[in-house]
Backbone:
């Protein structure tokens, strides 16, 4: 595949967003469509290279950006922080801006957004708010929380910000957000064992200098505000009901409440009238693209893309 770096201004008016565009090595055949990958918290787009290679080898253009506060190009003082104001929507708009840039490069091709974990929440925001037009949505490792839980988390976080400032780290918030995720794992080797049942994948994450860094209080608050946005029925009701949505997750993923949260998000979209919804749970933990069912996940994603966009881009 071919790799191109794209840089464009963030909606925060300060920073530059680093993105990558991946195109198939076969330049003689027209691409079939575009898949935009939206990464999760405390990681970066480079972690998806294997999945990118899978998709480009099958004729898809792929793109993805590093969110504000993420990626090797981020300054140490900015790591783990979105923005001083409207951090969640700023990141969602930055994500949609890449969509528009790539769509301009490949007009007429179907455009699918694939979001993992926090990236699935960002993708849901882009989709529900209509920040850019999408032909398909894939939500990987997503979840759902009650309005009560999110409201409580926001109040606690705001109290911490008043005490320490938005750019401070907080062991209290880290415990609240991630502290229970290893609870059902016997004898965990590290605090990040919940991401995959494969020790080598957990080690790869732990050894990556651009993964697992502390999230600052401002980003926690933005995340809670974002989840509050996507669980609001009035926002779900605004979704383009004709866009097909695929939910995929691990059956041992604590982010999705071991499947319960994924099903709750699915039911909320079905209740709102989204016409084409699919859901599948796989053996494994949070990162199903880096777990025991990886090959099946990739095959199923390809089958879903084929079923919805089989003729797209073919000569």
Residues:
């Amino acid at each position: 595949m071919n790799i191109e770096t794209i840089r464009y201004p963030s909606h925060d008016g300060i920073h530059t967003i680093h993105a990558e565009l991946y195109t198939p090595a076969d330049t003689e055949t027209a691409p079939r469509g575009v898949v935009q990958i939206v990464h999760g918290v405390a990681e970066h787009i480079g972690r998806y290279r294997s999945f990118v290679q899978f998709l480009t080898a099958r004729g898809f253009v792929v793109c993805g950006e590093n969110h504000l506060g993420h990626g090797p190009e981020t300054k140490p003082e900015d790591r783990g922080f979105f923005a001083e104001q409207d951090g969640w929507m700023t990141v969602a708009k930055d994500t949609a801006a890449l969509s528009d840039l790539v769509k301009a490069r490949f007009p007429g091709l179907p455009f699918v957004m694939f979001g993992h974990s926090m990236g699935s929440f960002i993708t849901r925001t882009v989709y529900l708010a209509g920040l850019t037009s999408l032909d398909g949505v894939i939500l990987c490792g997503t979840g759902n929380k009650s309005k009560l839980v999110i409201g409580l988390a926001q109040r606690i976080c705001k109290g911490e910000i008043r005490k320490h400032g938005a750019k401070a780290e907080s062991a209290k918030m880290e415990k609240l957000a991630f502290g229970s995720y290893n609870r059902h794992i016997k004898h965990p080797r590290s605090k990040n064992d919940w991401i995959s049942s494969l020790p080598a994948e957990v080690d790869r994450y732990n050894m990556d200098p651009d993964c697992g860094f502390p999230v600052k209080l401002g980003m926690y608050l933005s995340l809670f505000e974002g989840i509050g946005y996507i669980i609001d029925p009035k926002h779900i009701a605004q979704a383009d009901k004709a866009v097909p949505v695929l939910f995929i997750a691990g059956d041992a993923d604590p982010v999705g409440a071991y499947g319960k949260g994924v099903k709750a998000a699915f039911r909320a979209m079905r209740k709102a009238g989204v016409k084409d919804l699919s859901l599948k749970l796989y053996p494994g933990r949070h990162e199903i693209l880096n777990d025991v069912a990886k090959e099946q996940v990739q095959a199923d994603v390809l089958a879903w893309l084929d079923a919805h966009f089989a003729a797209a881009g073919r000569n």
About this structure: The beta strands are 2-9, 16-23, 33-38, 60-65, 111-116, 136-140, 245-250, 277-282. Residues 87-105 form the longest helix (19 residues). Residues 289 and 297 are 7 Å apart (CA to CA).
